[in-house]
Amino acid sequence: SEDSKHRVYTGHQLRAFTGIKFENKEASLSQCDQVQDNDFIRYNETPMRWRDVKLSHPYSKWNFAGVASDQVASLRVNSRQGVTAFHYILLLDRSGSMSGANWDNLMIATKALIKGRIESGADDRITIIPFDDHVVHTDIFTNQKMNDINTNNIRFTGGGTEFGQPLQVVINVLSQLRNNNITPHLRTIILFISDGGAGYPKQQLDVLAPQVGQDIAEFWTVTIGGQNNMHKQINDRMQGTLKLAIDPTTLKAVFAEIIADRNCR
User: Fold this and answer.
1) VWFA domain location, by residue (predicted)?
2) What range does the domain containing 55 cover?
3) Which of 40, 71, 102 is the C-terminal boundary of a domain?
4) Which of 53, 89, 133, 142 supports an S-S bond with 160, CB 3.0-4.6 Å?
5) Domain check: are 27 and 102 in the same one?
6) What is the DSSP string of 216-239?
């Protein structure tokens, strides 16, 4: 019955929960009221959201109603030392078809990705390459700290669509990073986001594809709208993961999914 359930109140600590740890494998000392449903923790060495842990045995029999919503702290369980840092490279399509809701939601998603990685505690770097049918080099944010990025400074331009130039910038950035002794050398996660089609960038992909699994840790293609055969070809060549955002309002959720597993390491 509800009365016989173990009742959890503000101040109850997670260290009483066998198997629940922070990302650095230390036993958790957080209080129940400090953990939010969407926060990731490790439960018996498996990354899980807190809401799913509460539904699992034996905690499904516990009563968490004693934790008042206005007492929930803003602590992020993932904000721990030891989360692996990456260099994120975002290729953001700003062609004419991306105007309006597409661009607005892409900026919301980009801001959320940056915020999520900052809150993870990882010492990431980021490069942002906006593109249409060409790349304006003064609009590129190259190898910057996440905290230094203001998404309001990412301009929308309109225009056509061309994939070779932004991918060439990726090649150049990776080359510069290999010879950079100032900032730490991090493995790269590339996000290629577009709603349009263009020619197949064979020359650039022939250079980048062999780097997958080495300097390039992951490649993600996010297609806004319906299926796009050219995006699939690019993604296949890069041994990447293809995500569809049929509705641009789902971009934030797609980006959250991309960083979720990273935030649990």
Assistant:
1) 87-235
2) 6-71
3) 71
4) 133
5) no
6) EEEEEEEEESS--HHHHHHHHHTT
